[in-house]
Design a protein that fits this description.
Strand content of chain A: under 5%
Structural class of chain A: mainly alpha
Helix content of chain B: 40-55%
Oligomer: heterodimer
CATH topology of the largest domain in chain B: Rossmann fold
Strand order of the largest sheet of chain A: 1-2
Number of domains of chain B: 2
Largest sheet of chain B: 6 strands, mixed
Shape of chain B: globular
Strand order of the largest sheet of chain B: 6-7-8-3-9-10
Order of helices and strands of chain B: EEEHEEHEHHHEHEHEEHHHH
Order of helices and strands of chain A: HHHHEEHHHHHH
CATH class of the largest domain in chain B: Alpha Beta
Number of domains of chain A: 1
Strand content of chain B: 15-25%
Chain lengths: ~270, ~290
């Protein structure tokens, strides 16, 4: 079922990573994505993967859930690494028709695999340890400078948090509607593509209707509580940078430094 | 004995093998006879809904078997759709499943999936609409333009149109006003009388169950706590209270009167019954002119 996907779920296990300022986590995450694609030799790759593993270990979340989130992308990983394997330049080690494997191709395949895995692990770590509210809160704060160009920061953040809030509700609703239509003999499991798409209509229409109904209800409820947008609004949970955030910034800075040093001192393999 | 539905040791476990494992239904065995109107009661989370969804193959029991007309419904999993036509299921708040352009088309959806067409289909739809008291003029309207009660009845008609042998109704009167409840309940009883089929009615309103049910299934924490004739179940009021349930108000009042030494019969289920029991008593004591 849709609900079994661990990717993007929040696990409130209260580790040091959970307590990090969500803004720090997002900034580190962005820096990490950039740096992981700037690794050109194995030493640099090792430094960046070690950093991801350190965060994973500190998050106190069972590796089982990380594996689960990796399972979702396993095909993408295999596909891209195969593509890279046959795409290298240099002397072929093995050849069959137009397909040839070179050392360069092997390196490329390893790099792309490790990079994607690190990317997924890091993003899982971010969503596993940060509640959707914290996440949108942090995004709102980080995007604040955009207000200068009249970008509706607060409204966008509010829309994001509302959307996230209704994901589980709508999943549950979909489940219920599917059961009800199945009880009326709707056939969702067989037939060709067109038949299957048509079979979705009895599910999608009630789902849209209920989504609109809920949207109206939420809007009314917000207006009843005098919601007037972001102006002059204070927060129940203030987010503050603490010592641990400084440490985590130092850690990512060290990783960036390490990767740069490795790239300069050692020969590039890709 | 011709059991239309028979459950043999069925259990349902959610999330088997995970830390969230939960036994929603635990080793339930029972037989429902053709033509019975069964009430199903139980506290929230007692496994009623899960049990009902196993009757028509929407959920597959983790253990045990479900027999419909003597045949195991999961014998051929590919044929499970046929079971769903024979055991009609009306979910809670069924009005949220309406989707067609017109009420007529929506009622026809299930019957059409069964393979009905032409005059047969038309008859099935119009009969179902008559049972649920939907005026012919309503049939051409969009289901989204109906009132709440009408939507509910249209959704129920959609299941009735499939002419199921067994009809399962999960809290059909929830969220309706007293008048709406009354009307819907009588429609269900009339339908039951006319078609002589088997009905399972899940409800939290004991008064409704007391009025219409022949026998009652009481669920508690996934187990079958009682399966007895209605009078018998409500006679055991103390036991019901242990399961977080209550007897109908009028039964409670009559029970209390009995405890006070007033000679009224036991197991009174409806206000009418209580009325005819109390009237002679009051006359005898000269408190009525």
């Amino acid at each position: 079922m849709v609900r079994d996907v661990a990717f993007g779920q929040y696990f409130p296990t209260k580790s040091v990573i959970h307590r990090l300022d969500p803004r720090a986590k997002i900034l580190i995450f962005i820096a990490y994505i950039v740096i992981i694609f700037c690794t050109f030799n194995y030493a640099a790759l090792a430094v960046t993967s070690a950093f991801a593993l350190l965060f994973l270990a500190l998050s106190k979340i069972s590796p089982k859930f990380y594996f689960k989130s990796l399972k979702v992308i396993i095909f993408i990983v295999i596909f891209t690494s195969l593509l890279n394997l046959f795409y290298g330049s240099g002397d072929p080690l093995w050849q069959w028709g137009i397909l040839s494997i070179t050392w360069n191709g092997i390196h490329r395949a390893i790099f792309v695999t490790v990079r994607i895995i690190c990317l997924i692990l890091a993003s899982s770590c971010l969503t596993f340890t940060t509640s959707p509210t914290e996440l949108t809160d942090a995004i709102e704060r980080l995007m604040k400078p955009l207000k200068v160009v009249h970008f509706p920061v607060h409204e966008v953040a509010m829309m994001m948090s509302l959307a996230l809030r209704f994901v589980p509700t709508l999943l549950e609703e979909t489940d219920k509607i599917m059961q009800a239509q199945k009880a009326r003999g709707a056939d969702l499991e067989s037939g060709g593509l067109i038949k299957r798409v048509k079979a979705l209509i009895p599910i999608l229409i009630p789902l849209f209707v209920s989504a609109f109904r809920r949207a109206y209800d939420v809007a009314t409820a917000m207006e009843c509580r005098c919601y007037r947008g972001g102006a002059g609004r204070t927060r129940m949970k203030q987010i503050h940078m603490a010592k641990r955030d400084v440490f985590s910034f130092i850690a990512i800075a060290l990783v960036i430094g390490g990767v740069i040093v490795c790239n300069i001192l050692l020969t590039h393999v890709i | 004995m011709s059991c239309v539905l028979e459950l043999k040791n069925i259990s349902f476990v959610y999330g088997k093998g995970t830390p969230f494992e939960k036994r929603a239904v635990d080793n339930v065995s029972l037989g429902i006879e053709r033509g019975e109107l069964i009430g199903v009661i139980g506290h929230t989370g007692s496994g009623k809904s899960t049990l009902m969804q196993m009757l028509n193959g929407l959920m597959r029991p983790t253990e045990g078997q479900v027999f419909l007309d003597g045949k195991d419904i999961w014998e051929k999993p590919k044929k499970i759709r046929e079971v769903r036509f024979k055991v009609g299921m009306v979910f809670q708040y069924p009005e949220y499943q309406l989707f067609e352009e017109t009420v007529y088309k929506d009622i026809a959806f299930g019957a059409q999936n069964m393979g009905l067409a032409g005059d047969e289909l038309d008859k099935a739809v119009r009969d179902a609409a008559t049972f649920t008291d939907l005026k012919p003029a309503l049939l051409d309207k969009s289901p989204f333009d109906l009132s709440g009660g009408e939507k509910r009845r249209a959704a129920i008609a959609g299941v009735i149109a499939m002419d199921p042998e067994v009809l399962v109704l999960d809290e059909p009167t929830a969220g309706l006003d007293p008048m709406g409840r009354e009307v819907l309940l009588s429609q269900i009883v009339n339908y039951h009388k006319a078609r002589q089929n088997t009905i399972l009615l899940v409800s939290h309103t004991m008064e409704d169950i007391a009025r219409v049910a022949d026998r009652i299934i009481v669920m508690n924490k996934g187990k079958l706590a009682m399966f007895e004739p209605t009078k018998e179940v409500f006679r055991r009021g103390d036991e019901l209270e242990n399961y977080g349930l209550k007897v109908p108000q009028i039964t409670r009042i009559m029970h209390d009167l009995r405890q006070k030494g007033i000679d009224v019969p036991e197991g009174v289920l409806t206000v009418d019954e209580a009325f005819s029991a109390l009237l002679p008593l009051l006359k005898k004591e000269g408190k009525l002119w």
